Amino acid sequence: MPPICSTEEIQKIEHLQIKDDIQVATDLMECAGTKAAESIVEWNQEAQKKSRNHFHVLCGPGNNGGDGFVIARTLFDLGMKVSCWELGNPTGMSSSSALMRSKWLQRGSISPIDRFQKVELKNGDIVVDALFGIGLTRPLDKRCSIIFEKIPPDIPIIAIDILSGLDSTSGKLLSVCDLSDYKATLTLTFQLAKWGHYLQEGSVRSGKIKVLPIGLDRGMREYSTENLPLVELVEANPPDFVVQLDKSGASHKYDHGHSLILSGSQGKMGAAELAGTSALRIGSGLVTLGLPRDALQIHSSKVKALMVTLADKPKDLQDCLQDKRINALCLGPGLGLGRKTREFTNAALESGRNVVLDADALTSFKDNPESLFKQLHEKTVITPHFGEFAKLFPDLANKMKSDNYPVLTAVQTASMRSGAIVLLKGRQTVIASPFGKTYLVNGEKFENSSWLATAGSGDVLAGMITGLMARNIAPLKCTVLATYLHLKTASLLGPGLIADDIPNTIPQAIEQVLN
């Protein structure tokens, strides 16, 4: 699982590597530009039909522009046709960028960026965007926006580090214009991918992302000794700890834990049954549904392996928990809103067991989320979608909607504030622990992931996490593994899936990732 970083993090890493040594900065720029040019040639050989292309390298006033001049020079030396276009005043450049500019001038000319607007791009032209990179903090002005707006959609854009205009932390497009067709075909980023490649508009505008190591290893080592771990990206490849899904060794059902899923009343039992079936399918040794009295009288589950017990009031739950073999609880799916659910939740948390809180168990505390946070502990996982997240963390939700505030930061803050592992569901699912470990599970990389937006899908996920927690896998790992497998089932099921399909596909998903 590769690490990814925010703008601030990569800038700190670069500072620790360079330490004001101009020669180190120059060598890094030369390395970055050379590797980018070589990758462009490699991509061109794989993707382009024309043997002769014309590369238009757009260079900005900062270090991204310096990278661009190296790219232009290297492409030229490799026999490519290159035109170089410049934005800004060269007198304000860093010494490294100025040096790279002068080296390019020994091979070719530089034209003002304004003239690029008049170029009629045609088949075979390729735009290399080295205007702003990760340093941009203000919207693209109208002049730059018009330049990008006029690039035809069929002309490839190769972004250097990040597509100009994208905030490299939040993924928000900073532009005074809409730029609906503006996106990279390929993004070549240095040392680490950035949060903004995967969040908000970055997820659809970055194209294929290729990470080029440029020798920031010492900076990364020094950074890691003093700071929280970098966010880890989970995409098509399974998490590193996927082997823990295997049931090797212990063979008795109680060796794999006992999950208790609380259910709502008549008409709302389906959510708990979905969660319970999913907990069984993912390997919980036993699963019991705790039902209110009216539901217990009519219960007839299609899954005969699900046991049932009375859980009509919080005292019933406390009595159930006298059985110490019950080691994981799930509350929320179809449970109902209000005081009774709050009391059930309090009793579950007081037990000190592994607890997953979803849906109604979260919304029931919307009027006083602090009363919930006081009870949460490191063995608790909360799994809100954005609406539920906003009820518990309204200030963070408002910042995400109104400010350039990244979802990764919001979930990290929510986890530290609440003391629980927080899973914020979405196309890009963010999972954070109060100890600073964070994962971004990129649903864009899983086929059919959008079909998981269906009733009951979240109940299945809650049950999957609960079942893994019952198996005494660390709660944070449980949450990441369950999220990955949840997406994997969508890939296997295809369009038209409903939540009832997912539990029965879990075995196939597990088999694939273990093999």
CATH homologous superfamily designation of the largest domain: Ribokinase
CATH C-level category of the largest domain = Alpha Beta
Please provide the count of β strands.
19
Largest sheet: 12 strands, mixed
Number of self-contained structural domains = 2
Terminal Cα span: 18 Å
Please estimate the helix content: 40-55%
Give start-end ranges of low-pLDDT stretches. Answer: none
Share of β-strand residues? 15-25%
Cα shape: elongated
In CATH terms, what is the architecture of the largest domain?
3-Layer(aba) Sandwich
Query: What is the strand arrangement across the widest sheet?
Result: 8-1-10-19-18-17-16-15-14-11-12-13
Question: Which features characterize this protein?
Answer:
515 residues; alpha/beta; Rossmann fold; UDP-N-acetylmuramoyl-L-alanine:D-glutamate ligase; 2 domains; 12-stranded mixed β-sheet; 7-stranded parallel β-sheet; 19 strands
Summarize the helices and strands and which ones pair or pack.
Elements: E1 3-5, H1 7-18, H2 22-47, E2 54-59, H3 63-77, E3 81-86, H4 95-105, E4 110-112, H5 113-116, E5 125-130, H6 142-149, E6 157-160, E7 186-190, E8 193-194, H7 202-205, E9 208-212, H8 217-226, E10 231-234, E11 258-262, H9 269-281, E12 286-291, H10 293-298, E13 307-310, H11 314-320, E14 326-331, H12 339-350, E15 354-357, H13 360-363, H14 369-373, E16 380-382, H15 386-392, H16 394-402, H17 407-418, E17 421-424, E18 428-432, E19 438-442, H18 457-470, H19 475-493, H20 501-514
Parallel strand pairs: 1-8, 2-3, 2-5, 3-4, 5-6, 6-7, 7-9, 10-19, 11-12, 11-14, 12-13, 14-15, 15-16, 16-17
Antiparallel strand pairs: 1-10, 17-18, 18-19
Helix pairs in contact: 1-8, 2-3, 2-4, 3-4, 9-18, 9-20, 11-12, 15-16, 16-17, 18-19, 19-20
